[in-house]
Amino acid sequence: METTSKTIYLDNAATTAMSDGALAAVTEAMREDWHNPSAMYTPSVEVTAKLNEARETLANITHAVDGEIYFTSGGTESNNTALFGARGRKGSRIIVGQGEHDSVFRAASELKSMGYDVRFAPIDTDGSVNIDEFKQLLSEDTSLVSVMHVSNETGAINDVARMVRLAKKLAPQAIFHSDGVQALGKIPVNLKALNVDMYSASAHKLHGPKGVGALYVKKGVSARPLLYGGGQEKGMRSGTESYPLARGFEVAAEEAARELAVNAERLNAYRLALKEELGRVNDIRVITPIENAAPGILTVAFDGIRGEVLLHSLEKFNILVGTGSACASHHESRFKRLFGLDEAHKEGVIRFSMSCENRIEEVEYVADCVRRCLASYKRSAQ
Amino acid sequence: METTSKTIYLDNAATTAMSDGALAAVTEAMREDWHNPSAMYTPSVEVTAKLNEARETLANITHAVDGEIYFTSGGTESNNTALFGARGRKGSRIIVGQGEHDSVFRAASELKSMGYDVRFAPIDTDGSVNIDEFKQLLSEDTSLVSVMHVSNETGAINDVARMVRLAKKLAPQAIFHSDGVQALGKIPVNLKALNVDMYSASAHKLHGPKGVGALYVKKGVSARPLLYGGGQEKGMRSGTESYPLARGFEVAAEEAARELAVNAERLNAYRLALKEELGRVNDIRVITPIENAAPGILTVAFDGIRGEVLLHSLEKFNILVGTGSACASHHESRFKRLFGLDEAHKEGVIRFSMSCENRIEEVEYVADCVRRCLASYKRSAQ
């Protein structure tokens, strides 16, 4: 078996390569549509109109008929704006999933230190929030709930619509936010059906540019901005709008929406094949709930090896994978204990995350390289 | 006189067209250097190294030898991070200039509503902070001072170094922040000499991309982040780093630094010529302190016309100008009363802001168009 010369990139949950369309769109807008949207002359009015078209495109894709989409600098800003902006009075309860992305989890921890009654809703070993335990936490004085749509660690899909229904009943004061960063472009997102009050998204997870995200806020939901200033984005997010980035987001989201069903089928086939191949010769634990997960993610735990070691071994075969929490600068182990793994597997978590650029033909090569890496590691460890 | 077919853009203080170099750099980095800097494999390590090179370039240009430069999503985020992140205990004094950009002014107003003793340091009619009155406001319990380096309204340069010296003496607890958004790339910025604790900058004001800025924080200065999450930028600014935008910032800042002296001379010549030409036939009040202002800005007040009306009239001649506060979505008049204008002039403020793309040959045409607009307006108003 020869090492492939082309890199096989399997860390698309961390970030994605830009699509040709999105890249061309950003470049063109940087060249042509650079006027400040807030100025009063015609070129600025035109950029504003285009910016609103981009907003409209995202609203159409996500069925955001009941609210407004605001552009932000990314998923982290969207999540922080939701948590800090929609928090209720000090001391009130705030419920977030135990498996949330750091931008929700750490914002919640900060809110805890500020005097909020922050509760972390337990997750099952597949990364999804346990609904029964979630239900127990809902209370009259809950001001904010934040549960991610798709887990970045495992791909697990939370039943957000059902959780919103429970929250509306048992915590009627609560604003319900969902982090959709790993959902948009991967699974259908229907904000009307989900009935969430706020929803976060990011462009660079779906082949768009880095540095732009979006926050949906339902009509009538009161949230404070995180950034004060010129009053852009109807006062919800000050700062000169970057139309080129919004345009790149628009194009990438359109492309992803158009290919959603086709890609879902392909990525799921890739995932199933990879799971089969990996399981055939290795002792693995599959963490991702295959039947209930975004199609592109397969998180597994290998026996007797640290994920980081396997990651670096695979890199020698031009295969790039993640160990989870890959978009965090630190590499802590908040999840290791949550996946319920035995001693042999608990350090060996690898997240394979695919995109439309991967090909089913790669699977056998990837699985074979994993096998070789493990064999070589175990020989050297003896 | 014929209308020029090429647009004469004189609103460079609101935003600038991207330079060819910066545009090419962003495009190349979007194509090549898209891996997540926080991942563990080699391409990510390489992007991180490049990101740090961009940081280093900005540090060299600004003589940021005593601290760290963090990338943000822009000037507004940098300013908000400084004000909210470096605020002291509730009730302590916070001093900001009366003429600060909205992203400082409104953040300070928010701090006031949160229980801080916020004082606005009066400005003179040229837009610069009055140092004597500033000095009066400094107190032992002052926790934060924020004074802009260059006024976006008038181009006036504040003597920040002197104000820092006063603050260190009379308000020894205070962290001193300066908004340098209109300074970087326009006048020499030496953070070591200024001795500020924090300093904000933005790329799109100097022919870089929109959506990226920087915040300098001096070693030993304690400031909290505004965005929590993955811990990027040493925990000071979470969120996946956009290396392509940072790279565009780097290239634009390098270009501006290289041409700083040449451009300053050219822009100042443009400004002086424009002032002369405008003053020759119109009754104007010059607000910009020509001898002590960033070279590219000329703010003047015209007699008997609203700035907005003149702006739209000039647009018919393909001349784009600002009315000040142009990068704000609202168009309020915080400054009108501050410039000390008489009744005839107080509504007629226009900000001409030039860049290296303007040519001295344009001046006569611009002045002539202004004259024609005013004459036509006054005829129709009679």
Topology:
2 copies of one chain form a homodimer.
Chain A: E1 8-10, H1 20-32, H2 42-62, E2 67-72, H3 75-85, E3 93-97, H4 102-113, E4 117-121, H5 131-137, E5 142-146, H6 160-170, E6 175-179, H7 191-194, E7 198-202, E8 213-218, H8 243-258, H9 260-281, E9 284-286, E10 297-302, H10 307-315, E11 319-321, E12 349-353, H11 362-381
Parallel strand pairs in A: 1-11, 3-4, 3-5, 5-6, 6-7
Antiparallel strand pairs in A: 2-8, 7-8, 9-10, 10-12
Give structural attributes.
homodimer, 382 residues, alpha/beta, Aspartate Aminotransferase, domain 1, Aspartate Aminotransferase, domain 2, 2 domains, seven-stranded mixed β-sheet, three-stranded antiparallel β-sheet
Brief overview:
Chain A is α/β, with parallel strands linked by helices.
- The strands making up the biggest β-sheet of chain A line up spatially as 2-8-7-6-5-3-4
Low-confidence stretches of chain A: 326-331
Taken as a percent bin, the fraction of beta residues of chain A is: 5-15%
CATH fold description of the largest domain in chain A: Aspartate Aminotransferase, domain 2
Number of strands of chain A: 12
Helix segment tally of chain A = 11
The first-level CATH class name of the largest domain in chain A:
Alpha Beta
User: How much is the average pLDDT of chain A?
Assistant: 95
CATH superfamily of the largest domain in chain A: Type I PLP-dependent aspartate aminotransferase-like (Major domain)
* Helix-strand pattern of chain A: EHHEHEHEHEHEHEEHHEEHEEH
